Amino acid sequence: MDKVLEIRDLHTSFFTHVGEVKAVRGVNIDIYKGEAVGIVGESGCGKSVTSLSIMRLVPSPGKIIKGEIYFNGEDLLKKSEKEMQRIRGNRISMVFQDPMTSLNPVYTIGDQLMEPLRVHKKMDAKSARQQAIELLKAVGIPDPERRFDQYPHEFSGGMRQRVMIAMALSCQPELMIADEPTTALDVTIQAQILELLKQLKAEYNMSIMLITHDLGIVADLCSRVIVMYAGIIVEQGTTKEIFYDPKHPYTWGLLRSVPRINMLSKKRLVPIDGQPPDLLKPPKGCPFMPRCRYAMKICKEQSPELYSVSETHKAACWLLDPRAPAVRWDKEEVNFR
Amino acid sequence: MSCSNEVLIEVKELKKYFPVRGGLIGGKKEVLKAVDGVTFSIYKGETLGLVGESGCGKTTVGRTILKLYSPTSGRIIFDGDDITDLNDRQMRPYRKRMQIIFQDPYASLNPRMTVGDIIAESIDIHNIAKGEERKAIIYDLLNKVGLSKEHANRYPHEFSGGQRQRIGIARALAVNPEFIVCDEPISALDVSIQAQIVNLLEDLQDELGLTYLFIAHDLSMVKHISDRVGVMYLGKLVELAPSDELYDRPLHPYTRALLSAIPIPDPDATQQRKRIILKGDVPTPINPPSGCRFRTRCPIARERCAEEEPVTKDFGGGHMVACHFVE
Q1: Residues pairing with B41 in the sheet
Q2: Cβ contact (<8 Å) for B190 and A159?
Q3: Separate counts of helices (H) and strands (E) for chain B
């Protein structure tokens, strides 16, 4: 399979008055053609900064310090701003979390939808309009001809997110980055959007990088999962490997701390105690060590290497070292009914 | 969690309308029917969950019960006393007995007050304690919610979201309430922190015999914490049942769709189940649909649904449903 995206040893930091906040600290990600990959983690784990780094949209005082980001073999970090403009919204597009603030309130939906078509595809006004209406139809907006001339405030949250997706799709990108695309939406609307993404992925053979904190959405949409914590990847594998045979104690903690609808009710949740580390001073060893109930002496001193569990499954944890005591993930604690 | 058969709160046909102005200048007056005739009881020591999508009126129900909004009509009975028409002064003794925990731990704590003063504000208002005794109460509360007494002199900005929510809980507990409205207390928190707060709320309930109204849109969490769950849609309570019963045997078509829409963190289970995808969006509560309010999105709606509003019926074991076509 062809790689659409290849991120090598990405480091992105924010240079604040208090000091350097190391938001992304050496991340490697591969995304293949036509697959959906979920990036999960909690706020501040670096998942959004990674996606902004791909688009070269890291806001000041943030900076990409080192690494390579290959998109179809070309290093995006070596591109000029002008070249990047030809890629953004055209070959790589992005859907942001908040549909309420990511549309321009003073332009009509139609104008905003036609913009990428006119800029990137050099379409004339008439065919751009036609294409934009087709797109609105494709994302399930009823009465698209009338909706075309309306303003964002006349659309509900779910409708706006559909418009955002329509915009992201307009130039048939090879890669769509969706950063928490459904977090601001209600569950029934979320279900509509997820169905839409699945259908579009199959139709256009598009790759999707889905950034979320919701494990349920990942289980539904993605074939592979990457778990991030404190700016590094702690575990990655196929969705089944991560959900049924996770190896990193942080992944165990994430899976244990969410109740599920098919779980026996009134069973006590197992939270992860403590807080994530301060990225101004990232710890020398494993960043999860202070919250890990299996932490050993070495975890404090040296950060763990990425151990391969299978060809697709990797985890950065000293427990996978042959010299570590055998600790197993207790499936019972998740309690499927 | 032990819940008795004694009713602590009884809400009868509660309505709360808000005036809204139509048009830019003047325009004709319209009303937004946020809560439109809701009836339920909460038993002592119980957790009643309230779920629904944004704009369904769940938060308004919580705030109206506490008389933070004055109800448009209906009755609110707290521990046998009708508190619906009490004025602010008459409400005071009841304010000590009912408290609220807010959704946003960043906006609900005064940034210029120390944590100790935030927690003790209601102690001061109700003249419960002074000096050393007041200090002792603050330290005890901090300890109860998993913080330490050194935190009393710090300011909210020094704390993370989870810790702030703990401060919010300590503030609610300061006057020894019997009843707490938890209004989306975990929605703003990270996944790993949510479980910490939910466990804390459960422990406090066991220890202090508290009664909760737990409002949230996260159905898995509501199911986890609640004894009974009510489902709201556009200002109406469409279904109310013991939580396992509701999730095992949802009867209202809206509840079914809502449950089927929850993402399950289990890839195999997700592949197997069938989703009910609702069409369209929730209509505006300013001009709600006639008859049954869910009919515009309902997969089984018929003519009768537009003409006649369904009455709430008991389908056994306190499983209440408002739908014409449930057998």
Answers
A1: B10
A2: no
A3: 11, 12
Residues of chain B neighbouring A293 (CB-CB closer than 8 A): none
Report in angstroms the alpha-carbon separations of A141 from A157, A170, B280: 12, 15, 9
Closest-CA distance, A190 to chain B, in angstroms, reads 8
Q: What is the ipTM of this complex?
A: 0.80
At A106 the pLDDT is: 94
Report how many Cβ contacts below 8 Å link chain A to chain B. Answer: 132
Interface test with chain B among A97, A154, A180, A187, by most B beta carbons within 10 Å: A187
In whole angstroms, give the CA distance from residue A89 to residue A84: 10
CA pair distance B84, B82, nearest whole angstrom = 6
For testing the chain A interface, which of B54, B163, B192 should be mutated: the one with the most A CBs within 10 Å?
Answer: B192
Q: Looking at the partner chain, which of A194, A219, A269 has a beta carbon nearest the beta carbon of B265?
A: A219
- Identify residue B89 by its one-letter amino acid code: R
Beta-carbon contacts of residue B177 (< 8 Å; ≥ 6 apart): B96, B97, B98, B99, B210
* Nearest C-alpha neighbor of A38 from the set B267, B191, B187: B267
How far is it, in rounded angstroms, from Cα B288 to Cα B306? Answer: 11
Q: In 3D, which of B140, B206, B196 has the Cα closest to residue B173?
A: B140
Task: Read off the pLDDT of each residue in A192-205 and give the average, rounded to a whole number.
Answer: 87
Residue B156 · residue B115 · CB < 8 Å:
yes
Q: Phi, psi (5° rounding) for residue B125?
A: -60, -40
A224-229 β-sheet, strand order: A92-95, A175-179, A207-212, A36-40, A224-229, A232-238, A314-315, A307-308
| Residue A128 DSSP SS3 | helix
The number of angstroms, rounded, from the C-alpha of A22 to the middle of its chain's C-alpha atoms is 19
A187/B265 touch (CB, cutoff 8 Å), yes or no: no
Q: Interior CA angle at B268 toward B263 and B274, to 5°?
A: 60
> Which residues are paired to A302 by β-bridges?
none
Residue A337: predicted pLDDT:
32
Closest CA to B113 of B165, B173, B153: B153
Q: Which residues in chain A have Cβ-Cβ distances shorter than 8 Å to B221? A: 259
CB A22 within 8 A of CB A230: no
Chain B residues with CB-CB distance to A under 8 A? 1, 53-54, 160, 162, 190-196, 198-199, 202, 217, 219-221, 223-224, 243-244, 247, 257-270, 275, 277-278, 280-282
A262:B244 CB<8 A: no
pLDDT per residue as tens, chain B (327 positions): 445 689 999 999 999 999 887 656 666 678 899 999 999 999 999 999 999 988 899 999 999 999 999 999 999 999 999 999 999 999 999 999 999 999 888 889 999 999 999 999 999 998 889 999 999 999 999 999 999 999 999 999 988 888 999 999 999 999 999 999 999 998 888 888 888 999 999 999 999 999 999 999 888 889 999 999 999 999 999 999 999 999 999 999 999 999 998 888 888 888 888 888 888 778 888 889 999 999 999 999 999 999 999 999 999 889 999 999 987
Binary contact (B262, A258; C-beta < 8 A): no
> Which residues in B lie closer than 8 A to residue A194 (C-beta atoms)?
263
Q: Which residue of B has its CA nearest to A218?
A: B265
